[in-house]
């Protein structure tokens, strides 16, 4: 990779998360010397982009690092010749998320941003926009890496891998947080901890824990049984049943609660919604309003601690670690979303998976798993991946039949009449964002 | 196979289905000349066995075929030197089935004999008994074929294949009925019809229909969309949504309604149960009482037409066809349950599957599929097969953890607390039949 | 398949083999009622076509069957609307075969029509012509089956499957002869014998022998050890070493002698060549001259017994059996060349393989193997198949690099300088027939 | 791994290579602080062990590192509680190697230490001794890593993985030398170079070269075409044909010359042998005599430069790098021999392969390949691996049939009579070292 003039384009630069990223770029500047940083957004986000841009400039100024900042609505200019393009977009903004969370609740189902029918709706809206960005990368920066933070990150990565030539890595802050929590549990330095994470984005199991070279997996399972924790800010932190954890033989990720505890999770979400009329999107709106309020304060020259509440902890850590490891050909291990290629032998070769990878200058190289996945993990993983394949097909081609099958086999739906009703509602409420389905009418 | 002195042992010979089998053995006697026929049952079934034995003897006498009939409670005597052992047992009898159907309903879930938590309970009770029978076959008739009609036939076949050396074929009357219905739909002779059935027992798709050498699959899907029919006596005959069938790209089997239409099927079953306190088992008890009443009539010397109501239509057809094709090395194609061995590449090699097989003297040889399974079929098939693997593990070893995971990932349960409650109830209500779990306490 | 007006086009109709085919069509007329039979050839074969056409007409007349015979050089007319197209062509005629056999001998290697460098040269010449025929079938008879008898039949089948949409089956008379010999060895009717043949064309092992339902494989291996026989007219009939056969654990096919006994086979071929200057092609020329002399005799109205010497015994049997089984949707088992599709799991999915298939109206359906191939079979099969993949690539695209690697890894060459020299000579001596390589210069 | 009291047992400690290892242990002492170092040998090697032990002690003394050295013939004492056991044994010593090299030459075949019939004989002698060592490790040091340098390293690794529970890594100095040469060719630091090596021991291709994050594979192939170099001290350094290298699409390893250039390599070896009666073993004997002469000189306190001639350049580098990366959980990438587990999808799961691995405290984790292997690599790799499987079977069980098939399908033999003769001669000349075959007589 070229060692000077490093250029980064951040699509969705007006996001409230951006100060995290700026903070990371400043902290790691010596190892990852960004010369040109483009924050890109669309017209409706102009105000936010202005606020973020100003804050970012103050942060850079305060740091003394020679990063040249640009804010722009010209996406092509930002992408042209970039070394890295990151995306953190939200098609339809928080209002769309709010709808994604509410529609399933009306049908007695979990309404969640990235899982189930909510994540499905988000995928339909998001994938076509990301593919548009990829067309521009193919044209204007064919050697660039796309670092995709946009959710649902696994579905987006699979769509990009199947339908474009862009070198793409899907990224989530869950794995890095998970590792931190395990290191904390054992009170060891992260460097003395090796964990194996296996699965797909937001459905990922920690199947092995090695500390100082000793396999501590069984001990670890005993420790976490019956504990809460190991969750995320945006997910109710229900504790894991001890016997259940033993029977899984691995630590499920925070999002697994939507599957394994779907009854209780539904009650949690629904009770709040019935009582307040609100879902997580509404909370986020309030947090965002507060954050932008803060961001406008001229004396603020660093990311504020309140940002942590936003659910994106370790975001800058994950993104900057990945880019600097590619830049420096580091060869360290990170958990990212990549093409399967046989690593998880029970999933299709071209599926996007989330596993341990060695990060080299040509991107992530997945590491072979230490053993076969047991049936309890395999079965759930396979059916959700089949749902994802169908959803990518639906999102890219506006394929209604694929959409219908996607939701019918999804473990959180599982009924064709329900699937049909959900899709009807999703298509109706998102008509402005789903031209691919209009075309096919 | 030896051409004279053909010996068959029918385990569960006192079943109300037996006259079907006797009828088939008489009809096909010239091609499949049974010399010694043993009907075996256990002490609590002595009365029924007497009635069935007498009827069977009258049927044989009326036919003039030189089949020597024995009724016995000495299972070892029956198995010793047998060429074929068939099983049609019901561990716990209809009372157990009734419990299997009612327990899930109490938790708001489908209660069904072979599917979901009901089928799971039946598998736990049945597999150990079948393995006991297999130990005797290994000792007393190592060259015999086990023709297993006992439900859940797929789970039983997988258990036998994984844990014994017995040559075993699992059999279901659904495929033969399915083919007859398609032949009828097209008004063609069955011999001019070739269909490809793919899946596992009671979760099997018809993926290809060839008539007179022409692939008519698309036409067939159009024809069946929006139709009822293609069901079984024991399954509510809801019609398939036209758009949904198109999106599957194959004809689901009758039992698929429990998955694809789980909401409506639950309502059907639950409404009946709430209104009458009865489930299918209770109806069957009544039918059985009537049948045994009929069977005692000395003037009855053939299977009565009322037997059709029992759900076992084509049973004799399926069982006798299979045995006579093995006996005669026929090389014809039948849909039976066998070890996968790579035929369905997305399932484990040692899984039991239900597919087209060429029947030769050394048993069934699966035929390679005409194409890859699409994700909508693959995903559902994989998760249910993973459930089956775990259930076999639970049934054979009394492995509670496997049981917990089995129900947790089952599409009709899908929640670990629900799974735990169901298992608690199943173990409590079936304690007398589940010694393998007692051992592990 | 349409039940009247059955039309067959025989490409290479002027072949001396054709009377075999005519004989078969007459004998099986009642089950396979050919209405229109086209014998097609090219200008240089006009005389032969005339002789064959006249004889064929006399045979048909004598039989009284209402087959309408056409001889033509208009290939398109022959193919248009055909139900079956068979090919039995020899690009470059026997002179080319003679060169194929002699070039390798000059380098100290086995020179043989279908194996090693000779078969490689034949593939380069033949595949492009067959693909031309396929283009016409795609246009003029898209529903027709191509029954390919043209050697190297496995390579041709793989090329057709990979590069056209034609429904194609590759056919060889070796399997049918092999089965006849085994039936004879055991003095049983072929119908009581089931054998499993596994491999690729001309590299096929008999891995299982079942007689009357009993697995007799071990007994069979003992019987054949140290025997000659099980060969073909065109292959020196060296006997198999007893210990060696035991170590293979299967019966190799006749052509395996070129691999397993390559030293002795080379000496045989080379001694004859050194002493007489002749190879098999020269013998065949003489046999052909005699045959055509015979064919011109007006009193000849049936295939003459001398035809057997030609090496094509059972040819009509194999070809007509296959076509009539497709026509009648017979469902019997035949060994033919088809797309792998996972049957031989250690070979690529899209490789052409030669295995037991059930013949239905939509073509052959491979039967799953009864077990894993042992390493001694697997290793040889894999390297020869890799050679075939490269050869198909070379033949279709005139890819010199693929050609160089094909011969370098071939077990009968195995050296890159030798491969280079051989290819140089083959390209030089076959320049008129290899336009695909000229293009790439 | 325990951070103090690190114990290493070196089986075959009297080898002339040992000073290399001592040198490495001293140089890397700070990162890999060996406390106890056992050099073990057998009675006939007592004199050599004395000389080596004395030199090693002088080297350690000169270094000032607190490594405690033991020389012993009590292997159990050395192994008990060891952290690492390394082996560098030569069963039958150089006389046996000399026979291995000469027997094939007498049959007109390449005679080489690790390849072809020579390597086969070495495997038969060596594997049983290594398995004996493994039994002691299982008993006395079950957590130890076996670092196996003994040739044929791939075959030994496969035998250990299949037949013991020992954690084993097979090691060769070829990959490290290969990487150094490529770094030199491009004049870059090794740290800026990433290469992908794929294959099995001594049959390994460099399929990808990345420099500073740019894929330079095509450029690299152009550069190496027509060059000599990239060889080893013990292999004639014939240059690669430019067109041939292009057609491979990868850099073959030095040992590939025995396959790809088998004719010329045979001539080289045979000419020397005919002229001098000597093979490489005889040269090595002379070098060894000189080395031991040097080693006895009291003033020698470091490894002498003459050791490089011995063919084991980078040996200490490879061995110490591996052990210290395991010890320190480094996570760097090294090319070692491990269980396949699906990395090379065209080889069996349990085959030993040689690929890029991430070295962690629990051993090597293979990295997924960047693409499918092309047929020219796949075919050769598969047939040689099948030979290896059969050879392991032959070596462990004294299975003559496996031995016969192993050599019959080996690309450098390829004829069953030749295989039989070779095995006869090998068994006769090695009778004292092959008790497993005596048992089976």
UniProtKB/TrEMBL annotation, chains A, B, C, D:
<keyword id="KW-0464">Manganese</keyword>
<keyword id="KW-0520">NAD</keyword>
<feature type="domain" description="Glycosyl hydrolase family 4 C-terminal">
    <location>
        <begin position="197"/>
        <end position="413"/>
    </location>
</feature>
<feature type="site" description="Increases basicity of active site Tyr">
    <location>
        <position position="113"/>
    </location>
</feature>
<dbReference type="InterPro" id="IPR022616">
    <property type="entry name" value="Glyco_hydro_4_C"/>
</dbReference>
<comment type="similarity">
    <text>Belongs to the glycosyl hydrolase 4 family.</text>
</comment>
<dbReference type="InterPro" id="IPR036291">
    <property type="entry name" value="NAD(P)-bd_dom_sf"/>
</dbReference>
<dbReference type="InterPro" id="IPR001088">
    <property type="entry name" value="Glyco_hydro_4"/>
</dbReference>
<keyword id="KW-0170">Cobalt</keyword>
<feature type="binding site">
    <location>
        <position position="202"/>
    </location>
    <ligand>
        <name>Mn(2+)</name>
    </ligand>
</feature>
<dbReference type="GO" id="GO:0004553">
    <property type="term" value="F:hydrolase activity, hydrolyzing O-glycosyl compounds"/>
</dbReference>
<dbReference type="GO" id="GO:0005975">
    <property type="term" value="P:carbohydrate metabolic process"/>
</dbReference>
<dbReference type="InterPro" id="IPR015955">
    <property type="entry name" value="Lactate_DH/Glyco_Ohase_4_C"/>
</dbReference>
<dbReference type="InterPro" id="IPR019802">
    <property type="entry name" value="GlycHydrolase_4_CS"/>
</dbReference>
<dbReference type="GO" id="GO:0016616">
    <property type="term" value="F:oxidoreductase activity, acting on the CH-OH group of donors, NAD or NADP as acceptor"/>
</dbReference>
<feature type="binding site">
    <location>
        <position position="97"/>
    </location>
    <ligand>
        <name>substrate</name>
    </ligand>
</feature>
<protein>
    <submittedName>
        <fullName>6-phospho-beta-glucosidase</fullName>
    </submittedName>
</protein>
<dbReference type="Pfam" id="PF11975">
    <property type="entry name" value="Glyco_hydro_4C"/>
</dbReference>
<keyword id="KW-0408">Iron</keyword>
<dbReference type="GO" id="GO:0046872">
    <property type="term" value="F:metal ion binding"/>
</dbReference>
<keyword id="KW-0326">Glycosidase</keyword>
<keyword id="KW-0479">Metal-binding</keyword>
<feature type="binding site">
    <location>
        <position position="172"/>
    </location>
    <ligand>
        <name>Mn(2+)</name>
    </ligand>
</feature>
<dbReference type="Pfam" id="PF02056">
    <property type="entry name" value="Glyco_hydro_4"/>
</dbReference>
<keyword id="KW-0378">Hydrolase</keyword>
<keyword id="KW-0533">Nickel</keyword>
<feature type="binding site">
    <location>
        <position position="151"/>
    </location>
    <ligand>
        <name>substrate</name>
    </ligand>
</feature>
């Amino acid at each position: 990779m070229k060692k000077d003039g490093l250029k980064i384009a951040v699509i969705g630069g007006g996001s409230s998360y951006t100060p995290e990223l700026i903070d990371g770029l400043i902290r790691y500047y010596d190892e990852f010397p960004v010369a040109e940083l483009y924050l890109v957004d669309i017209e409706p986000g102009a105000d936010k982009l202005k606020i973020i841009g100003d804050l970012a400039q103050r942060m850079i100024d305060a740091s003394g690092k020679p990063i040249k900042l640009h804010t722009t609505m010209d996406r092509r200019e930002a992408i042209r010749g970039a070394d890295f393009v990151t995306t953190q977009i939200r098609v339809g903004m928080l209002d769309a998320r709010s709808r994604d969370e509410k529609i399933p609740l009306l049908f007695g189902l979990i309404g969640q941003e990235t899982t189930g029918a909510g994540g499905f709706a988000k995928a339909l809206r998001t994938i076509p926009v990301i593919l548009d960005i990829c067309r521009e990368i193919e044209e204007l920066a064919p050697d660039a890496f796309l670092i995709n933070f946009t959710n649902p990150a696994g579905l987006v990565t699979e769509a990009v891998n199947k339908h474009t030539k862009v070198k793409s890595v899907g990224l989530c802050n869950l794995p890095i947080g998970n590792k931190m929590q395990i290191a904390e549990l054992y009170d060891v330095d992260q460097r003395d901890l090796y964990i194996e994470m296996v699965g797909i984005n937001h459905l990922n199991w920690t199947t092995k824990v090695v500390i100082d070279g000793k396999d501590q997996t069984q001990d670890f399972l005993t420790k976490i049984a019956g504990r809460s924790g190991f969750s995320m800010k945006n997910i109710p932190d229900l504790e894991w049943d001890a016997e259940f954890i033993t029977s899984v033989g691995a630590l499920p990720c925070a999002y697994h609660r939507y599957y394994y505890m779907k009854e209780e999770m539904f009650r949690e979400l629904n009770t709040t919604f019935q009582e307040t009329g609100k879902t997580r999107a509404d909370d986020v709106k309030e947090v965002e309003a507060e954050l932008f309020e803060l961001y406008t304060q001229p004396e603020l020259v660093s990311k504020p601690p309140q940002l942590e509440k936003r659910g994106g902890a370790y975001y800058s850590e994950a993104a900057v670690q990945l880019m600097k490891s590619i830049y420096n050909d580091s060869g360290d291990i990170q958990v990212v979303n990549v093409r399967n290629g046989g690593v998880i032998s029970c999933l299709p070769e071209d599926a996007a998976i989330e596993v341990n990878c060695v990060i080299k200058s040509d991107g992530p190289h997945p590491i072979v798993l230490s053993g076969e996945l047991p049936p309890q993990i395999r079965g759930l993983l396979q059916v959700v991946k089949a749902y994802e394949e169908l959803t990518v097909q639906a999102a890219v081609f506006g394929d209604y039949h694929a959409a219908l099958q996607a939701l019918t086999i999804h473990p959180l739906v599982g009924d064709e009449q329900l699937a049909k009703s959900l899709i009807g509602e999703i298509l109706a409420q998102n008509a402005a964002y789903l031209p691919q389905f209009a075309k096919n009418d």
